[in-house]
Task: inverse folding
């Protein structure tokens, strides 16, 4: 009886390892060599009237995950773990706060950007994050009202408050 339990654990562990290895080998890595700055947000210029922020993506991965018995893709971007809104395509997101003096008038302008278009990708929906008090796994339910025609990555922006999903 003990031999069967240990053997079952080893078999499950081996199957789990093969499963993870299979999906990791199927991950596609994308690298960009002509970046405008360091990865993530960097402050380029600052004075009393202007703030210039650069955002660069040096690399990201497209990983296969299983959602409701279907293989879908998930974009992984190092340092960005916030999911999108529930049911929307699960694009990594992040943001930064910038203090603005009371009474100041704020405007923003995108100075320049680059676009990379990926085709034939079935992005997984962002999961519903369970409450701490719930003992359940995240639920992946696609919001059918959200239509994504194109995903763009804006690289250089001049913003006062940033909150981007890539």
Result:
């Amino acid at each position: 009886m003990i031999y069967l339990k240990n053997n079952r654990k080893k078999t499950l562990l081996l199957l789990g390892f093969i499963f993870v290895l299979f999906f990791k080998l199927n991950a596609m890595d994308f690298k960009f060599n002509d970046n405008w700055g360091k990865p993530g947000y960097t402050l380029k210029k600052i004075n009393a009237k202007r703030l210039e922020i650069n955002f660069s993506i040096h690399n990201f991965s497209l990983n296969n995950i299983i959602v409701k018995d279907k293989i879908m893709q998930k974009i992984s971007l190092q340092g960005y773990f916030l999911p999108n809104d529930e049911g929307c395509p699960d694009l990594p997101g992040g943001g930064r706060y910038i203090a603005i003096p009371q009474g100041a008038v704020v405007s923003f302008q995108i100075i320049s950007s680059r676009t990379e278009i990926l085709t034939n990708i079935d992005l997984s929906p962002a999961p519903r994050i369970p409450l701490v008090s719930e003992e359940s796994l995240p639920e992946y339910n696609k919001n059918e009202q959200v239509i994504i025609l194109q995903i763009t990555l804006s690289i250089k922006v001049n913003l006062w408050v940033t909150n981007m999903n890539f």
